[in-house]
Design brief:
single chain; 29% strand
Length: 167
């Protein structure tokens, strides 16, 4: 076994260069437990936040998504994609522009000067209900399935007990 061929190394370097260029300008923001702020002079492609909140002062080319957090879109900010919130609230200040809005278990506070170019969808119920439905219910179903499998294995792996005849 020798060293990799030059062709292989050249291909590997080419793929690395193209991958770096493809992801260099994305400016995606993803956080877990730390709030995200898109400044007034910044542009982000997509913003995703788990157990934290998002504040948009600048421009988001893609989607804004939070799980268990709020979204505040401040004056003159733009979200070109969808804004989706699971278990949190949305606040739209004046002169903001967003596309579609979907809120599960939260409220929308919208200034009359805020522009929504797409659909607005809200699903009532408390945040705890929607967080349980989205995250807890699959865990409960998986647990029930595992318990069923254990029951089946135990049921069919028991040794047969012979029946004795009475005299």
């Amino acid at each position: 076994m020798g060293f990799p061929s030059r062709q292989f190394l050249t291909c590997l370097l080419g793929v690395a260069a193209f991958a770096t260029m493809a992801f260099a300008d994305t400016h995606e923001r993803t956080q877990f437990g730390h709030d995200i702020t898109v400044g007034s002079d910044e542009t982000a492609s997509d913003v995703t936040c788990f157990a934290c909140s998002v504040r948009v002062r600048g421009h988001v080319d893609g989607d804004v998504t939070t799980f268990g957090g709020n979204v505040v879109i401040e004056r003159d900010a733009v979200v070109a994609g969808d804004t989706t919130i699971f278990g949190g609230d949305l606040r739209l200040d004046n002169d903001t522009s967003v596309k579609d809005i979907t809120v599960f278990g939260g409220r929308i506070r919208r200034d009359p000067e805020a522009s929504v170019t797409g659909d607005i969808t809200t699903f009532g119920g408390g945040a705890a209900f929607w967080l349980f439905l989205i995250f807890g219910l699959p865990v409960v179903i998986l647990g029930a399935f595992i318990a069923f499998l254990i029951w089946l294995i135990r049921r069919f792996s028991r040794p047969a007990v012979p029946v004795t005849a009475r005299v």
